[in-house]
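Dear colleagues,

I hope this message finds you well. In preparation for our joint manuscript, I am sending the VOC family protein (Ktedonosporobacter rubrisoli) sequence together with its predicted structure, so that both groups work from identical material. I would be grateful if you could confirm receipt.
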Amino acid sequence: MFKNTKAFSGFSVSNLAEAKQFYGQTLGLEVSEEHGLLTLHIAGGTNILVYPKENHTPATFTILNFPVDDIEQAVDALVERGVRFEIYNEEYLATDEKGIMRSGGPKIAWFKDPAGNILSVLEEPA
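The corresponding structure tokens are as follows:
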């Protein structure tokens, strides 16, 4: 039924203007706004819908993963832009002082958007 349908994902935020600034300026994504909704235009032709929700509750899981060639470089660049990385110290989820988890899979670091949704950068070398 949906085999040839171009599905897309979406998520809510508490403040559309903050989201537009964060995703467009801080992360450098192409962002468009129409009818009170944001569209994130991701490389490869993927679009993600961002919509305001008055009683928004941040996602408790990673909603977007950004693959990068060099996680150290990506983390440093985002920190320079004011992004704060999450520090975890749990049995199966431990990050270093920069917020990078270096064991158990690809190197990955998590951060939040202004609405508290969890995002990540993960290293996928070319």
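For the figure legend, we might mention the following. The CA atoms of residues 92 and 104 lie 9 Å apart. Residues 10-123 form a domain with the 2,3-Dihydroxybiphenyl 1,2-Dioxygenase; domain 1 fold (CATH 3.10.180.10).

With kind regards,
E.M.
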